[in-house]
């Protein structure tokens, strides 16, 4: 087995796997290093299991809005079993086969930079192997859950995204620290699967504070209706858990403490760069790896180091990591062959628009591009229009009491959409239409001729354009 490859990819999450695929398509050889499971966080402890847990909760809510339908109590065992199927029972044989079929060499072990173009791999059996790269090393080590320095919190061994997505039972009482995407999705999943008391502690003034405020309000209403308690302007100041795995008490700045059976910390992510040898090439040994729009590390001479996915901090989303990976793999192949490396397809332009994201709660919240506040802060001349989704026939037909809203932020100078947000049941699949409009910078006068079918929720596009004045 040779130890020299054109490209060495460190980390076999969705981003790393896709880089390997693209460089091999480009005619290069690749090795992919992974100590845990090929497929990464996304496949086993993030996107896939979280959506498997949320799907039945979403369906129950949907059915509840249609008279004549009733759902029996959720069979939690069956839901957890389907989640286990979705994560391949934490067995990566299929994904390893995929990597090998690329074909790329799959190297099981922890990778660590060991000077320029060298990666030292520590295998699970303790053996070491040093790989060298002829052209590039790509860091795709992802991120891990951040745990804030609250006294007693680490000692309490709280759940993070890892444990909650892999839960084997649902706690009776759950306290959640954080008001972001993981907190909202997992609070709703656990509550919908039977948690009797779910309390979400939000430091700021609303859930999902990077989304349009109306989306946060609709989600807060839904949480309140379901009996999920959201406390804003508060945070944990101290945590106590005298018995491992026993009751856990969260102390707040004021008022009585909250006792629960489990505690979930969902306060963001830390790039997985500690211990990967960045200091051996003169970089700080932690933090994100800054990259240019071709994913090349800006601080490294000779341009042999790249970083894709969560580790570069651009957009912590699987689809954006995979997008970065495709263009990174292609640009490495182009540079290795001495071909043009400045084609538009070889530069990340999507992240700058504001990536598309779906929060799989009920209501679903999805957005692409800039919020009104972000567009104004960026200096655009902005006009925003909104429409009540419940007034769209296609949405009304989905269920009684349909609550939802849409908003389009327009650049008045060019009359193109800068950002779109939808909040409501069943809006996730609408998002790509907005992504095309925003990324394609489609003029409103042209969008007017994209006629949405009746009676679909997509008719909200027509209503937004009418609200704008077309
Ligand atoms: C609960 C949750 C739900 C999410 N849901 C969604 C969603 O619905 N949609 C979405 O787009 N995004 C979602 N995300 C975000 C998504 O999971 C990440 O953006 C995505 O996993 C990033 O991919 P990645 O390849 O960069 O990193 P990862 O998936 O984290 O993979 C990195 C890999 O690198 C490996 N690695 C680490 N250190 C080393 C080393 N030293 N040597 C070799 N290998 C190493 C790790 O073991 C891991 O396998 C979710 C995140 C969480 C926490
Ligand atoms: N459906 C999806 O697309 C999806 C689902 C889950 C996660 N993700 C991705 O994973 C990433 C991580 O999600 P996340 O929810 O952990 O992070 P986040 O950045 O979305 O939210 C973190 C939340 O924690 C709060 N917070 C931060 N530090 C705190 C502290 N010390 N005390 C109290 N609150 C604190 C923040 O104010 C924020 O509300 C996100 O960036 C998201 O893009 C995506």
UniProtKB/TrEMBL annotation:
Pfam families: Pyr_redox_2 (PF07992), Pyr_redox_dim (PF02852). FAD binds at residues 51, 111, 141-143, 310. Disulfide bonds join 42-47. Residues 356-461 form the Pyridine nucleotide-disulphide oxidoreductase dimerisation domain. The keyword DNA-binding does not apply. Its cofactor is FAD. Signal peptide: none annotated. Keywords: FAD, Flavoprotein, NAD, Nucleotide-binding. InterPro entries: Class-I_Pyr_Nuc-Dis_Oxidored, FAD/NAD-bd_sf, FAD/NAD-binding_dom, FAD/NAD-linked_Rdtase_dimer_sf, Pyr_nuc-diS_OxRdtase, Pyr_nucl-diS_OxRdtase_dimer. Belongs to the class-I pyridine nucleotide-disulfide oxidoreductase family. This is Oxidoreductase. The lineage of its organism: Bacteria, Bacillati, Actinomycetota, Actinomycetes, Streptosporangiales.
